[in-house]
Amino acid sequence: MEKGSRIISFDEAYKKYEGARTFTIMLKPIGSVCNLNCAYCYYLEKKNLYPTTTNFKLDEQLLEKFTRQYIQEQDVNEITFVWQGGEPGILGIDYFKKALAFQNKYAGKKIINNVFQTNGTYIDENWCTFFRDHNFLVGISVDGPEKLHDYYRKTKSGNPTFHRVMKSIELMHRYRVEFNTLTVVNKLTSAYPLEVYNFLKSIGSTFMQFIPIVERKAVAPETLQLVDNTYKKAALVTDWSVEPIKFGKFLCSIFDEWVKKDVGQHYVQLFDVTLANWIGEPPGLCVFQKNCGMTAVMEHNGDIYSCDHFVYDKYLLGNTNINSPDELMHSKKHADFSNNKFESLPTYCHDCEFLFACHGECPKHRFVETPNGESRLNYLCKSYKMFFRHVTPAMNFMINEIHNNRAPANIMTKFKF
Q: What is the pTM of this model?
């Protein structure tokens, strides 16, 4: 269904080489430093974990050491480096030329891939030439049409960013840079599903990720005001967070449009992940897998945390100046984090008909109670129940097509809507 192109999915290596000694660690080479001040960003305040740090740049000595270990410690022939932020573009092209030199130095016979997630405000002709010449896959953040994108995604001085992002996308088309779009579904954008989806199609996005934003903010002052699901003190869901019913309707509306017109032409990550779980294959997205921990994150100083959404002191695995990435990724602490996703599910989830498709989704969102008073129900439970129930007939049809060696895209002409 993905037309043979690459997609940004940080668990693809695990899915492809399941059973081999492999792992994925996203790199934050500039930490949480960013030129934007997106209202809903959960990462900007992570700088508070490093109060004495003045330079958040991952130094080249540590970058070289990590590159060597990351390549050599995995028993697979294809390695993917994932660059995130903050905004990694702040570091400039020369920094990533050095990163590529390190990769080439230690690659041996292994294939090296690079994924670059950006807000799109630094991309110019030089960046596009670099991305194209070195086969980078670029993920660009865009939340929809101008009125929706600019509502939360502003510069630190409060200026809009939409037109800068559109210029970047135009350049990537011109220079034939392969890109995906990442769209945050927040309280505002969730009310405009078809406007968002049709806009993304209009700008040439054929691979789309829709990420629900759900955050709780501590009432009392804390080092990190946006708290994880285990926070016991008073905390309130932020006013930008997507509401469960609206997110469910958002997904259903886009699915109805996609399944009638765009199967095989436009890739929507969640829809393919759902089909994978429906057919019994490992999904390429961590939040719908049984266990967590397939993708960790490394900060600017070498600190490795179990997950990008759990960059809190208690989820710190260690530092690559002291321990190797392989050692940390196969540590008991990380294994416990991974297994806790399924082991901590309430009975309500185990009894759910859609457990196979959801697996409780992201643990960070598990902070509400079940109808019978159990803790750790996912805030978005109603969203996914609505969506999975809605797509069941279509999923069953596409699975039947696959089992009979026919294209799932047949649903657009043969399924009775």
A: 0.93
